Amino acid sequence: MFAELPVRHLVIGEQQLKQLQKNVWSNRFVQGSMVSEGTKKEIKVRYRGGHTRDYPKRSYEVVRGGKTYHYNAEYDDPSLIRNALSFRFFEWIGVPCSQTRHCLLRLNGQNLGVYLEIEGVDRYFFRRRGISVQSLFYAVNDNANFSLYPNDTSRKKSSLFSGYKQMIGSSDDRSKLTLFIRKLNTLGSDSSKALLSYLQLRLDIDNYLRWLAGAVLTGNYDGFDQNYAIYRHRKSQKYRIIPWDYEGTWGRNCFGKPCGSDLVRVTGYNRLTRTLLKFPAVRSKYKKLLAAMLNDPFTVTKIIPVAYTMHNAIRPHVVRDTARKWSVSEFEGEVWMIRRYIEERRRLVADALRDL
Fold this sequence. Notes:
The chain is of the alpha+beta class. The chain has eleven helices and eleven strands.
């Protein structure tokens, strides 16, 4: 008997669907409706993602009742659970992140297979959690590395806003983010008291270190220079980080290729991380956070039962999904692969902590 998964039924008119399919790289929305749990609501819908738009099973972004939802095909992930498992882990370590839910997606009556429904990071995200937000930016490419320079180049960026997309706030908020990046790179030496004081004033360091630890432990190599959201908390006026796009984790990269459990170094990447960890007090706090997370929740006994629950819930539907990239046998071995990654990663991080 199949496990119950919610069904989301997209209904898009012929002309609107042709417009959507005409240019898969367009970010323009088309009108449609979605039937969910017996209720029909008007929506706006478009394709989402980067290289994944070329895939036979595409992902969608839906705006329903003013709230944004992402329907990810998780095409490169043979388990289809890495994103969901990562976000659950971030919840455990105290980093606000999107809620997720596996579902069956249909388009005009056609079954598209298993998808991951992901809550968008928008005003509703913050309202639901009682977080007051001043501004919000998406890190959309690897120029969002907190540096004056693009990765692997000595030529300065034409704009320090390069790599970001503003979602909430004014032009003044945009200027404040670029000022933060500029001061990070120019305010005294990397280990100066003035720089540390500035970072303590403008950055929620505890949130940042927890986010950093989450990216390091799950092994998201692409999560340091992009694939995050950064927002400014209205009350404290400090920047905080939210994780995004954690498909390439738990022993596989963003294309689904198996990778070593040592792919991501324990100190992570990007200019802000390097600067913070030069301060002994910050480094010590990060070390204690990692050590505590190795005790709980980064353990096989905590994570694997959740992985099995997710895996078993979607298994009957994945077997019937003819649009999937990976074989059923590959899917069947994924929880074991995630378990092996956790065991190896725990040993590697514990060893690295001795020298941190």
